[in-house]
Amino acid sequence: MSLPLSVLLVRTPITANQISLGIISLGFAAAWLFSRGGYTACLLGAIVSLAASILDGCDGEVARLKYQESAFGCWLETVGDYTYYFAIFVGITVGAVRSTGRPIFYDLGVAAISGAIVTAFLLLLLRQRMTSEQPERFGAASKANFIADGPGWVRFLAWLSVCATRAVMPYGILMLAIAGLTPAVIVFAAIGANLYWIALTTRMRTMLAVPAGVALVLALSLSAAACGGSEQSTAPTPPTAPFSATDLREGTGATASPGRTVTVSYTGWLFDPARPESKGTQFDAQASFTFQLGVGRVIPGWEQGIPGMKVGGQRRLVIPPNLGYGSQMVGSIPPNSTLVFDVMLLNVI
Known about the structure:
- The protein is α+β, with helices and mostly antiparallel strands.
- It folds into two domains: 2-229, Four Helix Bundle (Hemerythrin (Met), subunit A), CATH 1.20.120; 244-348, Chitinase A, domain 3 (Roll).
- It is built from eleven helices and five strands.
- It has helices spanning 2-9, 16-36, 39-65, 71-100, 104-131, 138-147, 152-161, 169-178, 184-204, 220-223, 300-305, and strands spanning 244-249, 261-271, 279-292, 314-319, 339-348.
- It has a five-stranded antiparallel β-sheet.
- Helix 2 (16-36) packs antiparallel against helix 3 (39-65) and helix 3 (39-65) packs antiparallel against helix 8.
- The chain is elongated, with a radius of gyration of 23 Å.
- It starts with a helix and ends with a strand.
């Protein structure tokens, strides 16, 4: 659900790191609403929490679309994810005590937050140990090293952990809030957070040598959310083709050039040489898209392929991965994909 928002945000001066900071602010706002304890406040908190979850995918996508990816940005996003968990747990704990009058929820809250802190601390150490200066590769590295050859219970635990990610958990919180059962969230968190890292420690102790004999824990429930939830694909490399720009119809109006603001309509497909015109699965289409050429608002293949078009003209662009989205997965576009675009130039300013 985040990709349409990312397409809108990429046209603005807003940076990926600014989006990350905005998401953190939404997390604190949701926590404050949960802390009020009433039905309406908890329901509003769940809605704000879900909005933060949807936006959580935007910072990573905008970073890739604007070529703003950095190790700092990835770490900022990770800190934001952890902050979300801690803030939400604190807010729901306080709200649960207020709404039920049962102090035991303080104990459950401490248990949930403690389990999350241990998991986060160990995960940060593990990420540094496994990926060093490339933290965005942690998702793929964790799967390759800890899940692929693990026993059945490890794979089941990894599957179950998806329920605790930023992408899924807010939907569960919203359903419980609608049912008036928001305090149940902290009960599930207290049990799940601690069982999860304890169970995974059993697996990790056999696979990693850690200073001071500490077994690093692979917290998949958090790592799946880190860096926009994006992971390197293990699927076979898609078919490729060299860059090309072919005019399907010559235009007669103003010419697009770097620095000019252009409006286009387009349709995008995955490159598939076995399909007619090499058009595979369609992944996007826009009737009107406005941007400035030459300032990095679009992928390099567009920066290279659109200049020279005249208003009214239509051009087909075949864009290899190095001029597209590279090894990153963006929306439904797999890593290392060659793309085919039919672009019509509507206006030049």
